[in-house]
Amino acid sequence: MLSNHSPLNTRLPLVYHPNYSFSFDPKHRFVMSKFANLYNEVKSMGLIGGNLVQPELGSPSPLELVHCEDYIWDLWRNQLDDKTMRRIGLPWSEQLMARTFTAPLGTLKTAELALKHGVACHLAGGTHHAHYDFGSGYCMVNDLAYTSTTLIQQGKVNNVLVFDLDVHQGDGTAAMLKHNPYVFTCSIHCEKNFPFRKHDSDLDIGLENHLEDAAYLNIVQETLTGLIEDLNPDLVLYDAGVDVWEQDTLGKLNISWQGLEKRDALVLKTCQSKGVPVATVIGGGYDKDHLRLAKRHAIVVKQAALL
Question: Where is the Histone deacetylase domain (predicted)?
């Protein structure tokens, strides 16, 4: 890993929209303020400037490519039944819809920038529990499925590796891309954790509870290196979930803060060394200390700026 005293690349492409955070119950388990807090944390590093790209405001129409049309329009119009909304776990609002349908455009923009510059970071994204016709686990639409499918359909890439290191399995991504031969889904997650009904990724590695840094980093390194050699992907979509951290309220692994730094550094440097563009999304992270959570999510951005 490069020294934290190395100069940061202030030209690192970053993607963010101000609608990602809005007034929301601060006691809710999902920290809606984390996106704005992450923006401020990254800005404090001196990484916000002409390199910041804002995606267009979203609507359900683009998401029809990968989602059930009835589902996303009923979601947009607040016409889903209570049971379906409970499964999502977030209270409906116009602000929530604005951010929900803008964020996938942000991940797509990040991927396009990564293809041009080698690496780019989205200050949101990673909604991997969203399925074709329902939402789950705070995820309503799947930005990873949308981005990879769009890029392939537009002919910008031939194949994509979705490398998901959130502590929770990327069940929605796995299910939605199961029959897409041009996208390979890999999820390395805590096995005995949500979702309790897993969907088969192209490669799943279920980790035991309380796994620590050395074993975890070895698995990540060997898996990613092997996949890049086997697949030769045109792009890696990296879900850098920080809920693997030992004090995360929804994680069950014992990965240290330094372990998170080493993980993100090795993923990014492995991609760089193989000449594979990598686009990062922040994935999950849960913490009653909201500013500490933002600092955790900023780790992947800092490591990308150290390349």
Answer: 28-296
> Which DSSP letter does residue 214 get?
H
What pTM value is reported for the model? 0.96
Distance CA 251, CA 102 (A): 27
Closest Cα partner for 166 from 300, 29, 38, 283? 283
Q: Which residues contact 108 (CB under 8 A, 6 or more apart)?
A: 55, 143, 146, 147, 150, 151
Say if CB 66 and CB 88 are below 8 A apart: no
CA distance 166 to 129: 11
Q: Give the pLDDT confidence of 233-287 residue by residue, as tens digits.
A: 999 999 999 999 999 999 999 999 999 999 999 999 999 999 999 999 999 999 9
For residue 121, the cross-strand partners are 14, 280
Domains and CATH numbers, the chain: 14-18+28-305 (3.40.800.20)
**Are 151 and 160 in contact, with CB atoms under 8 Å apart?**
yes
pLDDT tens digits, 109-135? 999 999 999 999 999 999 999 999 999
- Residue 166 is given by DSSP the state S
Rounded Cα–Cα distance for residues 220 and 188 (Å): 8
* Structure token digits, residue 305: 């700026």
Q: Where are the alpha helices (DSSP H) in 1-93?
A: 34-44, 60-63, 69-76, 82-88
